[in-house]
Amino acid sequence: MKAIDIGKTGINNWRKQNGAILITVVLISAFMAMVLIRANQIVSYQKQLGSNIQLRDKAMSYLSGLEEFAKISLKKSFEDNKESTVHLNQDWASQGFSFPIEGGMMSATIKDMQSCFNLNSIIHEDQQGANNNQPNANFGFAKPTGGQEIFADLIHQTNEDAGLNTSGLAAVVRDWIDPDMDVAGPDGAEDNYYQSLEIPYRVSNNMIAHPSELLAMKDFNRAIYNGLRSYICTLPDKTVNKININTVTSENSVLIYAVLNAPNLTLEQVNNAIGARPDEGFGNIAEFLQELGQQLPKDVKEKADKFLTVNSHYFEMTGTVIIGKNGETKVVVKTLLKRDNSNNFEIIGRYFGKE
Ligand SMILES: [Ca+2]
Q1: CA angle at 117 for the pair 113 and 123, rounded to the nearest 5°
Q2: How far is the CA of 174 from the centre of ligand 1 (A)?
Q3: How far is residue 16 CA from its own chain's centroid?
């Protein structure tokens, strides 16, 4: 047979082709390796995601159990005590409870939600006013509600800026909540104001769901909000305008001071009266006023009867579940509970988050 002579050019071509094949094989191998690494990452991510979802579902189930436990223990506390008042020495107000759970821990504390000023009560009509929606001698604007006056004084007491227009800020909140588009005073704000902003938005004209909504309102800022935060709350009922003198702590007694807003009455006197509170709380408002050791004007006594109470119907459970190998899943819920006259508790709201 005659040998095939591929010659020098043939050998070079063959070497070149071999080199090209080698590069292609290396590239394909590298590509395949990258695909495998990425696939592995996706599987690992999906696995982690699945595990997180499972842990979160588990945490939610535990929180649901905590809520039921809170309802039962609140009911038991009030049935055992058989008292007509709500105070901080009752079982529900103890330091809370915690339980170990599989792979973690769950805990809860309960707070009386009538120990703070309900922002939504600002639009509750003053019971003594003829009709606050009707313009009157207040320069043609609606008469400020009792809640507006208390809130204005609370801003004054909790903020260092003496130049704040507190009644204007209270009018802004009233306008934010009330369903109409009529400004509640020269400093009030309805759609016209919010629509003229650089980034326009609309007035809510609805009840406030969380105190932080204040930050979206005209003239409010972080400093005013921070000053107010520990004294204010939002209940989904504007008629809840009474603050329980038996559950307000002495650190928060400025709240009661703002309600009374009485001439000659000092914050120290209110503090002392709260400090002298009997273990079982005051039996009624008259007992508290007596403890103040002051002859109060008739209108201040009426204000006390209208805006203070010794009873409560709204409570908040803060439930926390920490779960996972390294405690990596933490879920916090604030559950609002309403108490009826038979001491049954109904869940009327939930808020997920720290604050
Ligand atoms: Ca409005």
Answers
A1: 115
A2: 7
A3: 73
- Looking up tokens 């979160």 gives 56
Quote the ligand 1 centre to 230 CA distance (angstroms): 25
User: Which residues of the chain are modeled with pLDDT < 70?
Assistant: 1-12, 14, 16, 126-140, 354-355
5 CA to middle of ligand 1, Å? 98
- With beta carbons less than 8 A apart as the criterion, state whether 171 and 184 touch: yes
Output the pTM of the full model.
Answer: 0.83
Give the max Cα distance, the chain.
134
Q: Could you give the CA distance from residue 170 to residue 187 in angstroms, rounded to a whole number?
A: 9
DSSP 255-292: HHHHHH--TT--HHHHHHHHHT--TT--SSHHHHHHHT
Please give the CATH topology (third level) of the domain spanning 121-232: Ribonucleotide Reductase Protein R1; domain 1 (1.10.40)
C-alpha 214/C-alpha 209 separation (Å) is: 10
- Give the C-alpha separation, 99 to 108, whole Å: 9
**Gyration radius of the chain's alpha carbons:** 32
Structure tokens at 222: 């972080």
Report CA(348)–ligand 1 centroid distance (Å): 24
Per-domain residue ranges of the chain: 121-232
Q: How far is the CA of 121 from the centre of ligand 1 (A)?
A: 14
- Looking at residue 329, its pLDDT comes to 85
- Smallest Cα–Cα separation from 337: which of 112, 65, 88, 86? 112
CB–CB of 234/242 below 8 Å? no
pLDDT at residue 66 in the model: 93
